[in-house]
Write a structure and sequence with these properties.
The complex is a heterotrimer of chains A (about 300), B (about 300) and C (about 300). With about 300 residues, chain A is of the alpha/beta class. Chain A contains eleven helices and twelve strands. The chains are: A alpha/beta (about 300), B mainly alpha (about 300), C mainly alpha (about 300). Chains in contact: A-B, A-C, B-C. At the B-C interface, helix 1, helix 3, helix 4, helix 5 and helix 6 of B face helix 2, helix 5, helix 6, helix 7 and helix 10 of C.
């Protein structure tokens, strides 16, 4: 199912002349190297002049960007540049932080999601999130995946079985656990498997957008590659925004990349947003060039 | 299951119902928080109002009387006396036990059984502690009802409580402090004495005050150890502690304020039962509040002094 | 563990520690202080058990008669059946726990999940003050406020409630509320935050998260809290005695006056002669109470041990 070729990796050579030591990029057979799909109509999600405050302190300054449907946008940048904070706007997880305040407009399919009459609960079904450290619930694999749909009232056993199998398959975990999904606890899986379980859990709510906050940073290299492989498959169906501090990962996986940096006022801001290939090989901003070539961060 | 682009407005169907359930739950939980505050406030207000008619210095310090509304002076004195006596026994023992559990105890069966003993003694009902005290400190020793007997009975649950609180306070001292002292060639005991204990003092003091609060209100364990006779005519000038008639001697019956409340109620004699009960309860409540507030206050000051300095 | 190795005092280059240090007096002293607690348990058990069986040994009362429902220590036929007291203790404790648990768990949920910091900083100290209120004061409040309210306000229901099982349970339930609340609150705080965010990020409401994730995860701690509350309630003597009516009958209705094991001991101990059967039976009751508390400590330890394995 996978082919590994060095010829497909001109990006890596451009970033780092010692690219020969980097792991080969894994490409799903049949798919070409990532290109940004042509922008068509309303973007799936977009943010306009979004600033985020923690109390009086500005954390993210004035970000405007949009994400086309069925594409992967990577947010890269040094620590403290506000990437994760910005990511959390899209499913309003910032609401959980006391004192956090978001200004500007955030939209899903053109509909504002910061409005007071928006059901946050419904929003989070449509915009799912995978966290940095896998956090499976202390229940069986089946119950973990079925959790989201059950809370929304789904009870039909046959449909649920199908949904669980579908989600686990999409998350590339089904074959490894299919004999034991009712008894085996989610906590007994390995780190990489746990993260794929968390992805399956999100997929079961049948979202449209998936947010991933450094989804592979707690995983070993092999699990990381599998998760990246997964992302490329998921891109066929979902819109994905991923935060990563691993530039090579962004280059491997995403269609477009946004580079965030921390300003002198310690607030994060968007420096540059472009097709991934362009951002890494021919960035327009000197700061971007410095970051991707490793001169800081 | 659902099509993309479905509205995310709050009114939509299923989501609406779970949100209502969530709101109701939140309201109920807030209600519980308010209930606790209202209950406490209500109790305090009740006692203030109930004691307005007769609370006075002569009530607090005067002698109980058979005919008129007497005071609770000797009872209050006994409560304080019993407190001091009980603490004098339990605090040093508790600190020593806490030192062992924190600094010396290994992960073995002996330590486990000590912990079991700690938990076991603290969950013994106080009336049973009183029964034990009756056998051990009243009958076997032939002392009869004495303050000492009561204090020793109280030690039974003070000791595990003090030991646990001291152990916690000592464990909270960072390991670095100990390492630094040992690296300078001090012995373990010197380290404990000069470094660890001083740093644990705020925690230990808080522990002492909390234990004291518990002791002050105790009654069931004292019924059959310190006695329930109504004391009058204490001659405080008699400083001979070996004289069983002197209020300063530990070998005399010592009815405390809490016991007195129960006794007055159970005997039900005299027309002032209500006032005595209300007044004494109000006094007890006031001391609890003072102990509680004092413990927080003192704890905060001591910690600030030790960390900021 | 805060244990760092011993450092022997070196004199010059001599490595052999001085006798004083080999003796390590401080260590032995503190060890004895801690070990004394174990000794206390044995002595406590021993004395109470000894006196508790005197009813059978010294007075020759057969064990089976103690299980009878008839309490008649003075009138013939003399019977020392303590079943009414045992049932009353179970009943009063049980209803108290039933009343208190939902309130306490709810309060703990409030403190842990719902209350903003300021609200928490007011309610928690209030709870600590509750803990400090002596049991006689609770008994007095029950006596002077609760019982009259119950007696007057329920007459329209057709029965009178005054000094009763119900009054005893209500007073007890408030007394054990802070105990159950604080331990449950600690259990909630121990649940990792990621489980909460995981549920919320999947689009559940806070209440759904509490119901399906938090409460199951904290089940062991909550059960411990309830058992501790139950133990405290069963062992409470004076507060209960003041409101419960003190009638040694088999409890059949919440509104009837009853007597618990603890209440009977406080009532009769002063009126009976040491060594006589009507005194010794009180010691037997005390022994039962002691055994109940020991059993619950063992139960809690067993629960926590199996919880850790899971």
């Amino acid at each position: 199912m996978t082919t590994t070729t060095r010829e497909d990796a001109p990006l890596l050579d451009a970033i780092d002349p010692a690219a020969a030591t980097l792991p080969p990029r894994i490409v799903v057979a049949g798919a070409e190297a990532p290109t940004a799909p042509a922008a068509t109509g309303t973007p799936k999600v977009d943010a306009e002049n979004v600033s985020i405050y923690y109390g009086a302190k500005l954390a993210v300054r004035d970000v405007t960007l949009h994400v086309p449907e069925r594409s992967i946008l990577a947010l890269i940048g040094p620590s403290g540049s506000g990437k994760s904070t910005f990511l959390r706007c899209f499913n309003r997880m910032n609401d959980l932080i006391p004192g956090a305040r978001v200004t500007g407009q955030v939209r899903l399919d053109g509909e504002a999601l910061m409005d007071a009459d928006v059901s946050v609960v419904e929003l989070r079904r449509r915009v799912g999130m995978v966290f940095q450290r896998p956090n499976p619930f202390p229940m069986s694999i089946y119950d973990n995946v079925a959790y989201g749909p059950r809370r929304r009232g789904a009870s039909n056993r046959v449909e649920m079985d199908e949904l669980v199998e579908r989600s686990l398959t999409r998350a590339a975990l089904w074959n490894e656990v299919k004999d034991d999904i009712h008894k085996k606890s989610g906590l007994s899986l390995s780190g990489g498997q746990q993260q794929r379980l968390c992805i399956a859990r999100v997929l079961a709510t049948e979202p449209e957008v998936i947010l991933m906050d450094e989804p592979a940073s707690a995983l070993d290299p092999i699990s990381t590659l599998r998760v990246e492989e997964l992302m490329r498959e998921l891109r066929e169906t979902y819109t994905i925004i991923i935060v990563t501090h691993n530039m090579q990962q962004a280059a491997r996986v995403s269609d477009r990349t946004a580079f965030f940096n921390m300003g002198e006022d310690r607030a994060g801001y968007l420096v540059e947003l472009d097709d991934t290939r362009t951002l890494f090989t021919n960035p327009k901003n000197q700061l971007t060039e410095d970051y991707v070539s490793g001169r800081f961060g | 299951m659902t099509a993309a682009g479905q509205s995310q407005r709050k009114s939509s169907g299923r989501a609406g119902r779970t949100i209502v359930a969530d709101r109701v739950a939140t309201a109920v939980l807030w209600g519980l928080g308010a209930f606790v505050l209202l209950l406490l406030g209500g109790i305090i207000v009740h006692f203030v109002l109930a004691s307005i008619g007769f609370m006075s210095l002569s009530f607090v310090f005067g002698d109980p009387s058979e005919s008129a509304l007497g005071g609770v002076g000797p009872l209050l004195f006994n409560s304080v006396y019993m407190l001091v006596l009980a603490m004098l026994i339990a605090v040093p023992l508790g600190i020593l036990a806490g030192i062992y559990m924190s600094e010396y105890a290994g992960d073995n069966r002996v330590t486990d059984s000590i912990r079991f003993a700690e938990e076991a003694i603290s969950s013994v009902p106080s009336i049973v502690v009183g029964l034990f005290g009756l056998i051990a400190f009243v009958n076997l020793t032939h002392w009869g009802f004495t303050a000492m007997g009561g204090a020793l009975a109280l030690t039974l649950f003070n000791l595990p409580l003090m030991a646990r609180l001291c152990e916690q306070a000592l464990r909270a001292v960072p390991a670095d402090e100990r390492s630094a002292s040992l690296a300078l060639g001090a012995t373990k005991w010197q380290t404990i004495r000069h470094v660890v204990l001083p740093l644990a003092i705020p925690g230990i003091v808080t522990g002492i005050i909390l234990t004291a609060g518990r002791v002050f209100g105790e009654a069931a364990a004292l019924l059959f150890t310190a006695g329930i006779s109504t004391p009058t005519g204490y001659n405080f000038a008699n400083l001979n502690i070996f004289d069983h008639n002197s209020p300063w001697s530990p070998f005399r019956p010592a009815t405390t304020l809490s016991v007195y409340i129960w006794k007055t109620n159970s005997e039900g004699l005299g027309s002032f039962v209500q006032q005595i009960g209300d007044g004494a309860s109000a006094l007890l409540l006031a001391t609890v509040l003072i102990f509680n507030v004092g413990a927080r206050f003192l704890g905060r000051i001591l910690t600030r002094r030790l960390t900021a300095a | 563990m805060a244990v760092v190795g011993d450092a022997p005092v070196l004199t010059g280059l001599c490595v052999r520690p001085a006798f004083r240090d080999r003796l390590d007096l401080p260590r032995r002293v503190v060890f004895l202080a801690a070990l004394s607690m174990v000794g206390i348990v044995f002595i406590l058990l021993g004395f109470i058990a000894w006196q508790g069986v005197q009813l059978f040994v010294q007075n020759g009362v057969p064990i089976s008669s103690v299980l009878s429902p008839t309490w008649s220590p003075e009138d013939a036929p003399v019977s020392f059946g303590i079943l009414p007291f045992v049932l009353a203790t179970i009943g009063v404790t049980g209803v108290a726990v039933l009343i208190s648990t939902p309130l306490s768990v709810g309060l703990a949920l409030f403190l842990s999940e719902v209350a903003p910091r300021r609200a928490r900083e007011i309610v928690q100290p209030a709870l600590e003050i509750f803990v400090g209120i002596p049991s006689v004061v609770w008994g007095w409040l029950g006596l002077t406020i609760l019982v009259p309210i119950l007696a007057t306000n329920f007459r329209w229901l057709g029965f009178t409630v005054g000094f009763s099982w119900f009054a005893g349970s209500v007073v007890l339930s408030i007394m054990i509320l802070p105990t159950i609340t604080t331990i449950t609150y600690d259990a909630f705080r121990a649940v990792p935050q990621e489980l909460r965010t995981g549920s919320l990020a999947l689009g559940t409401t806070r209440w759904q998260m509490i119901r399906h994730i938090l409460l199951p995860a904290a089940r062991a701690g909550t059960l411990t809290a309830i058992v501790l509350g139950m133990t405290r309630a069963a062992g409470e003597a004076l507060a209960v005695q003041m409101v419960i009516g003190n009638r040694p009958t088999i409890p059949t209705s919440l509104t009837q006056p009853v007597t618990t094991l603890t209440s009977q001991i406080t009532l009769d101990m002063g009126n009976t002669v040491f060594g006589a059967p009507d005194n010794n039976v009180l010691w037997t009751m005390g022994l039962i109470l002691l055994l109940i508390s020991m059993l619950s400590v063992i139960l809690i330890r067993a629960m926590n041990r199996s919880g850790k394995r899971a």
